[in-house]
Structure formats: structure tokens, C-alpha cells
Write a structure and sequence with these properties.
Helix content: 40-55%
Number of strands: 13
InterPro entries: Homing_endonucl
Shape: globular
Distance between the termini: 40 Å
CATH topology of the largest domain: Endonuclease I-creI
Organism: Polarella glacialis (Dinoflagellate)
Protein name: Homing endonuclease LAGLIDADG domain-containing protein
Length: 408
């Protein structure tokens, strides 16, 4: 119930973008560019920067078709506190940056980079110079036709290219391209039980992940893990043995959004990996906030794993008495661990609700109306009254149904 309440808490409005620790006020509107200035702008950018932007756009970028078929718009959406890549896109292609969606619950505010018109065509032409996941869409945006009939035909082609099973032409990878794609779709996880960390990249369309696999082989890196296929997502997990090599290459190639996490991981040793893991959790997003184990949870799982290994040894040696005693202890530890996790999660959700309320959050009602609250106690009181009202209404409806049934 606390999580349900949290999901209905809407953050107070904000018009800010945070990048490299600096707060910028939004909106950053599109600066007017004359025809002469537009012609004088270069039609290409530095190769490494172009590769980075191409990789990031393949991950988080979108080519949007105007509803009136007047042309296409290039957009990228990011959390308001992860605006580093948007500044690079604006520096290369102009455009504007605006507040997009208001934060709700654990979901942060989002901001949107947008470029359209002639500047949008220029950006699409530059990003589409080399093969990429979205090259075909970018070419459409760069050469949008004038006639209505051609635009209708192009709309059909554009919709087909949006399918997740679209097969692009072989994508030329570089470390800058992988850095951009990793900034958009990658994830770094420090192991809870031992010194080490993992890299992974997820994408609906597996084509790009296979291209990265081929690139790693060309770079003589021993990547043996395949692309893992899930229900809705495909994942490439980098082998542990090459993680530090890959990390160094990505940093050298311009990793930006996840630079702080990468630099923090580089300081990790066998004695400080727990501190690094805790620091990483403060830099990462909120997706795994309530499933992540705290330090006590890590110690509990270590003990559970240790007992389970002893259970296995007792089975192999035929020690029935040891087996039964260890199994009982294992089950008790599991039960204790489950209960402790729930208590920790409840405490974390409660703290998040208090934090949002203190910042002026309001609870959304139907039609996105907000109910202003001053404390968690007031939130509980109003929820209790709403639940009692629903119970009374349910009882009243139930009596009416029964009366109709008797009359029939």
C-alpha cells in the first residue's frame, strides 16, 4: 500500500537541467538561424564526436513524424539530472531543451532535446552519414518530400522502420560509438559478495548487440558470452575478464553520462568494494532501489549461501542427521531474510514518501488533480477515510443487488 501511495505522489514542478553538477534553468529555446548562417554551418562534425552522438541516438534518440506530415523532429528524453549528453547534442546541432514529464513516485522529471525544421534536417543528415540502427529513419528526416502523395508513402516506410525487428545495414562500431550507446542503454553493477563488477547493455532489437560482439572480437577482447534473449529485451553481458579494459576504452572515447560511475569503479579494490557499491547506488537511477540489498542483507545472503553449500556436502556424503539440521537452519535463515528485506523496503518507501512530501509533492487524483499533504500521518488518515467510504459504498451496492435478486 505504501508503494501504491508513492506511485501517486507527483513531484513539485521544476524547470531545471543538471549536467556536470551545474544547474541550468529551462527552457533553452531554439535560436533563430538565417538562411545564410545555415549555409555556413559545417555539414559534418569531428569523427569521434559524430560516432558518440550516433551511438547515443541509436540508444535513446527518436525520429518523430509530425501529425500534419510537414516533416520530422529529432528528440531525446533524459532524466533532468542526467543532462550531459543533451548538452553535447545541442552544441553539435542546436535545437532546444525543454521540461517534458513531471516526476511521479520514483520516476524523476524528464527533459527533452528537440530539433526540427532546417536545423533538424541538418542534424539528421549528419547523424545518418554512417550506418546505424536509425540511419534509414534519419535519411527520411533529412530528405522529407514536398508532395503530399510522397509524404503518405514515406509515412508507411517510416512506420515499418519503427518495428523492433528492423534489420539495419552492418553498423561500423568504434569505441566512441559504443561509449555513446552505453551512456544511453548501459548499466554498471558492483557485485555484492565479492570484488568485481559487471557491464551489461540491453536493447529490444538484438542487431546492435551482435554488432558490438563482432567489434569486441576485432579488438581482440575475449568476449565469450552470447546475447541473452528475454521476453521483451535482449541483453549483452560483458565477460568479467575484460571489464576493466572495456571501461578504460569507454572513458577514453568520451563516456559522459556514466563517467562518474565508471571513474568510481576504477578506484575499486578488494578491500573497498562494499563502499564503492554503496556510492554507486547513490549515483544510479531508482529502478532497483527497493530490490537492492543493504549491508546487513548482503551478510545474511552470504550466510545463507554458506549453509546451502554445507547442505549440498551433507547430501553428497550421506549424512542424514547433518542434512536435516542444516536444512532446518537454512529454511529459518531464509524466512528471517525475507522478513528483514520487507522491513527494509518498507522503511525505504516511508522515507521516500516523507522526502517527497517535504519537497512539496502532491497526491494525484483522477484527471491528474493533486491533493496537497503536509505529512505521512495526514496521508494515512485520508487514505483510511477513502477506504472506509469505499467499504460503505460496496456494502450499500451489495444490499441493493441482494434486494433485486429477492424480488426476481
Amino acid at each position: 500500500r505504501l508503494k501504491l501511495l508513492l506511485r501517486r505522489l507527483e513531484w513539485p514542478p521544476t524547470n531545471q537541467l543538471v549536467a556536470h553538477g551545474i544547474v541550468h534553468e529551462l527552457p533553452w529555446r531554439v535560436a533563430k538561424v538565417s538562411e545564410v548562417d545555415l549555409q555556413q554551418l559545417p555539414q559534418t562534425i569531428h569523427k569521434q564526436e559524430q560516432d558518440y552522438l550516433r551511438g547515443f541516438f541509436d540508444g535513446d534518440g527518436s525520429v518523430v513524424l509530425n501529425t500534419d506530415l510537414s516533416g520530422c523532429v529529432l528528440t531525446i528524453s533524459q532524466s533532468f539530472d542526467r543532462g550531459e549528453a543533451l548538452l553535447r547534442f545541442r552544441a553539435a546541432f542546436r535545437g532546444g531543451i525543454y521540461s517534458s514529464e513531471q516526476g511521479v513516485g520514483l520516476r524523476k522529471h524528464t527533459v527533452l532535446w528537440v530539433v526540427r525544421g532546417k536545423m533538424g534536417k541538418r542534424a539528421a543528415a549528419i547523424l545518418g552519414q554512417q550506418s546505424s540502427m536509425k540511419q534509414a529513419q534519419l535519411k527520411i528526416a533529412a530528405s522529407w518530400p514536398e508532395s503530399h502523395e510522397s509524404r503518405l508513402e514515406m509515412k508507411v516506410t517510416w512506420k515499418h522502420l519503427k518495428h523492433f525487428d528492423h534489420q539495419p545495414v552492418a553498423i561500423p562500431c568504434s569505441w566512441a560509438y559504443v561509449a555513446g550507446f552505453f551512456d544511453a542503454e548501459g548499466y554498471i553493477k558492483v557485485h555484492a559478495h565479492s570484488f568485481g563488477f559487471g557491464f551489461r547493455v540491453a536493447q529490444k532489437n538484438p542487431s546492435i548487440l551482435h554488432c558490438i560482439l563482432v567489434f569486441l572480437k576485432e579488438e581482440k577482447l575475449a568476449q565469450r558470452s552470447p546475447v541473452y534473449k528475454g521476453d521483451n529485451m535482449n541483453t549483452l553481458v560483458f565477460n568479467t575478464g575484460i571489464n576493466f579494459q572495456v571501461l578504460g576504452q569507454l572513458l577514453s572515447a568520451g563516456l559522459t553520462v556514466k563517467r562518474l560511475e565508471a571513474e568510481l569503479v576504477q578506484t575499486m579494490t578488494a578491500t573497498n568494494f562494499i563502499d564503492v557499491r554503496n556510492a554507486m547506488s547513490r549515483l544510479s537511477g531508482n529502478q532497483s532501489r527497493y530490490s537492492r540489498l543493504d549491508d546487513e542483507g548482503v551478510l545474511r545472503t552470504r550466510e545463507i549461501n554458506r549453509i546451502w553449500h554445507r547442505v549440498g556436502r551433507a547430501i553428497n556424503h550421506g549424512c542424514d542427521e547433518d542434512f536435516l539440521g542444516l536444512l532446518s537452519k537454512f529454511q529459518a535463515l531464509q524466512k528471517e531474510h525475507t522478513k528483514a528485506k520487507l522491513i527494509t523496503q518498507k522503511r525505504a518507501v516511508h522515507e521516500d514518501i516523507r522526502h517527497l512530501l517535504a519537497r512539496g509533492a502532491g497526491m494525484m487524483k483522477a484527471a491528474r488533480k493533486k491533493l496537497r499533504l503536509q505529512s505521512v500521518d495526514e496521508l494515512k488518515e485520508r487514505t483510511s477515510r477513502a477506504r472506509e467510504l469505499m467499504r460503505r459504498r460496496g456494502r450499500s451496492c451489495g444490499g441493493a443487488v441482494a434486494a433485486v435478486g429477492d424480488a426476481w
